[in-house]
Input
Amino acid sequence: MRIVVPVKYVPDINADRRFSDCRVVRDPAEGSLNELDENALEAALRIIEALGDDEREASEIVALTVAPADGDLALRKAFQMGVDRGVRVTDDALAGSDYFGTTAAIAAAVRRLESEGPVDLVITGMAALDGLGSVVPALLAAELGRPALTLAKKVAIESGALTITRETDDATEELSAPLPAVLSVADTANTPRFPNFKLIMAARTKQIEAWSLADLGLDAASVGTAGARTETTSAAPRPPRPEVELVQDKGEGGTALAEFLIRNELV
Amino acid sequence: MTSPLPTRNRTVLVLLDPATEVRSSALELFTIARTLGRVEAVTLEAPTVEVLAQLGAYGVETVHQAELAASYQQDERHLPAVVGAALAAAMRLTDADVVLAPATFSAKEATALAAHRLGAGLIIDAAGVTEDSEGRIVGSKRVFAGAWDTVSRVTTDVAVLTVRANAVVPQPADAAVATEVEGFPVELDAPLPTVVSRTAKVRAAGRPSLEEAAIVVAGGRGTGGDFGPVTELADALGAAVGASRDAVFEGWFDQYIGQTGVTIAPRVYVGAGISGAPHHRGGMQASQVIVAVNSDPEAPIFEICDFAVVGDLADVLPQAAAKIRAHRGV
Ligand SMILES: Cc1cc2nc3c(=O)[nH]c(=O)nc-3n(C[C@H](O)[C@H](O)[C@H](O)COP(=O)(O)OP(=O)(O)OC[C@H]3O[C@@H](n4cnc5c(N)ncnc54)[C@H](O)[C@@H]3O)c2cc1C
Ligand SMILES: Nc1ncnc2c1ncn2[C@@H]1O[C@H](COP(=O)(O)O)[C@@H](O)[C@H]1O
Output
């Protein structure tokens, strides 16, 4: 079984996230592996761990990121959790990519990995916490011509078929498809493991493979700012909210709350 | 209030799924669509008579109903790949300039797939849609847990957007129109998963849905599992009920607000027994007015509040509910 897990390096949600020149500021001191991709990595690790000994020996999990060199931080974290290989797609021409440019680069890298041997599963997180698009998994499935099983809260693999349970806005669904497929996991799918000491030490010296657009045979005009179909024209911090009106409840707190809503014509 | 008139002769397609009820999010989309061009809807099932009447009132001239092969007419037709293929076919058929869809996870995937097929620009979860001086479609967004506002413009001729609920107040058209329903064929070529089972969720009767409500009362771990005071205040306000993820993981409620749950931007959000973790804030900080009740005077949620009560929610919420019921005379 070979699994590719696309992971993104994003500004930490507890840090002071900001824009500069309409681009997200990616400060390595305040960046991290997108937390939701930890659920994808955990799902991949559990699938491999459930295999028989022989099959497990022949398995591989590849963490893949499309990012500048700082993206290595996300791959290091993936190594700490236990993945075997880390690949980073980096090219100046990729800066400013929209969802389609990013997806094209991830798909091209998956195809290159496929040229080495079959890739049974691509497992993504449910969203990147910077842009909250939740569209790359479906787009990736379309690019690769594979069925998409997205937003899984339960994942099972049995005799070459993947079955998931998911909650959509309108229904609870059980979906199934033969491998190869693209899977995205919700944050409710599992609890990501904490890396152990051995893996943390080993992660420090693992090699990261860096691929360029030329390595992937991708046309620079189709990605990055050149290929983007949207452009951000302004980004401004919201004005601070006015001081909070804080009431200490001494028996009248509920009445005060109701009066606030009534006074502001919100009821 | 009169809405701006479109400056160009555009065709604007609105995704109407389901077509057996018109949700307030769909009415908002029609209202926005009328400011951009001529409004048409895309459905994957036959609209009911009641729905057609509402569409007419909102100025929808044509409904394009996808004709799917029999094997896709049941549960499969809800798959984003099927909805996306139908949207793309409708866009080709009508030569659409703009597509608007609600901000559900399924609609995000479907619109992305349609935009992918047609080489259209995509904006996910706009809080407002307008046009710039060159006639390009522009979407504004609230990002980074409501801390920043961004504006993006679509540089391709065709623009596809999902739009957050509560972006505008729904308004019927000045004059109602007669709505025509026309079928169109959809070719499906993408590999699809099999839908083993599908159980539709029942929307709580008598209460607005969390996604669309103008007022939301949410409970967290501080409820200790008793959502009674939360629902009591919600009912007094005619509000939807929500929760933090921790409360849902405890099994106390079924839908949580936040970056990975439902993202909301109601007129009023009331959070009770919720600390205000960044993940939670990400899903509610764009609310117009934020109110919190928390026993801890240091609770982080107070940093983003307009009004807050330091106290026990079990005392504060029922008292507030009683006062509001008295005010509303119910
Ligand atoms: C990847 C990831 C994604 C996540 N996504 C989400 C998300 O989308 N949405 C979400 O909500 N969370 C999300 N979380 C969880 C989030 O980080 C917090 O753990 C969660 O929001 C906390 O829930 P809470 O506020 O109910 O509980 P707590 O943080 O435990 O807060 C409870 C609050 O109740 C107060 N309290 C206690 N008793 C009373 C009382 N009697 N009266 C009044 N106040 C009282 C306490 O002072 C405290 O402030 C996510 C976490 C991760 C790791
Ligand atoms: N630049 C990227 N590199 C690798 N994986 C990515 C990248 N962007 C998005 N992804 C993957 O796609 C998922 C959804 O991202 P998004 O659609 O942008 O919200 C993430 O959880 C990642 O698994």
